[in-house]
Amino acid sequence: MPKSDVTTAGRAPTADDVARLAGVSRSAVSRTFTVGASVSPATRKKVLQAADAIGYRVNFLARSLSQQRTSLVGLVVADMDNSFRGRLVDHLSRSLVKLEYRPFLLPGTRGDDDDVRHITDMMLHYKLSGAIVTSDNAPAEIAERCAAHDVPLVLVNKPEAGGKVANVTLDCDKAGRLAAEALRRAGCRTVAFASQRRPSHTISLRKRAFERACRDLGMEIVEDFKGDAQDYDGGVEAAKAFAGGHGPVDGIYCVNDYLALGFLDYLRHATEISVPGDLKLVACDDIAEAAWLSYDLTTVRQDSAVIAEAAIAALVARIENPGATSPPTFIDVSLVERGSTRSTFNPSPR
After folding, report:
1. For 39-74, b where at least 16 C-beta lie within 10 A, e where not — what string?
2. Are the CB atoms for 340 and 295 separated by under 8 Å?
3. Helix extents (H) in the chain
4. Less CB within 10 Å around the terminal CB: N or C of the chain?
């Protein structure tokens, strides 16, 4: 289709230009670029060819001024240095794009009320189709503000915030139980936590489940060695506290893999404590680094792709039926046994 049929020199091409070049109505152009709208295959082909010929692109932000909703979906995310969180956001973004939604990222800051208000204000300015929250930014407050503006919301691994907000979370009871059983099979009798001082909903639930399972299995929990956060530096800090003095401990439950990496590295480089020789270790998440030969970490796997799929399904259900109550979705977990709970080093494939 020749570009010379329509003159757009000195200005951005418009939908009217596309309509003239394609020989169709202005409304046909609009329907072609509206998800779910009815348009014949022949008309769609002509419109897309014309748009490509003159470089036309829909301005979705401008379109939002005249529409009740855009195709934008806000992703509120924190702790992107954790590879599990990064992998989850990657899955969420790709899945949204396949459904013709346009994800945009809003970085959260833990425990900052002003940040929560700023993030929600930014989201609500764009007439979102919906939002997914994976950060720990006061999910109840975000839920309240989204509900006031009829914005469908999904919380991932967060406390429930009412029946109109969808929750997707891993099976924390099973995660804690699998960790305890792995240490018990490895011969442990006296165990400890390596965790963080910052609050975390799912980690608190996993710890309680681990405690219950340890009691049932006849294991004693002697202490909780803490770092500031559930990250690498937090693991180093927890390991320093552990190495600084403790009673007999033959097993330790690190609350997530990222923290476990720091814990292991400190023990290896600053102490004579060996894993798994002196201490068996199990964690949670199954991030990519957990399978690296330098860590070979036994862990409870939560599948980020499955979580993302469930979160997208929950969001679409909220968009299509905003008045319905959303029951929580629980994601199954499984144990991946590697060298950190074995008697000898014998790395296994991921």
Report:
1. beeebbebbbebbebbebeeeeeeebeeeeebbbbb
2. yes
3. 15-22, 26-32, 41-54, 60-64, 83-98, 113-124, 139-148, 172-185, 201-217, 232-243, 257-270, 304-320
4. C
pTM of the model: 0.79
Task: Select from 349, 229, 339 the least CA-distant residue to 279.
Answer: 339
- Domain membership flag for residue 121: yes
- Is residue 349 within a helix (H) or strand (E), and if so which, with residue range? none
Residues 163 and 184 in one domain: no
Residue 261 phi/psi, 5° resolution?
-60, -45
What is the CATH number for 39?
A: 1.10.260.40
- Given a contact cutoff of 8 angstroms between Cβ atoms, the answer to whether 325 and 163 are in contact is yes
Q: Are 18 and 47 in contact (CB under 8 A)?
A: yes
Domain range enclosing 279: 172-302+335-341
Residue 349: inside a domain: no
Q: Is residue 221 part of a domain?
A: yes
Report which of 78, 79, 80, 60 is spatially closest to residue 70, judged by C-alpha positions.
Answer: 60
Q: How many residues does the chain have?
A: 350
Half-sphere exposure of 152 (CA within 13 A, CB side): 24
Rounded CA-CA distance 231/173 in Å is: 22
Total domains present in the chain:
3
Mean pLDDT, rounded, for 2-22? 72
Q: Residue 157 belongs to a domain with what CATH number?
A: 3.40.50.2300
pLDDT tens-place string over residues 173-226: 999 999 999 999 999 999 999 999 988 888 999 999 999 999 999 999 999 999
Alpha helix positions (H), 14-170? 15-22, 26-32, 41-54, 60-64, 83-98, 113-124, 139-148
* Model pLDDT, residue 5: 52
Query: 292 with 310, same domain?
Result: no
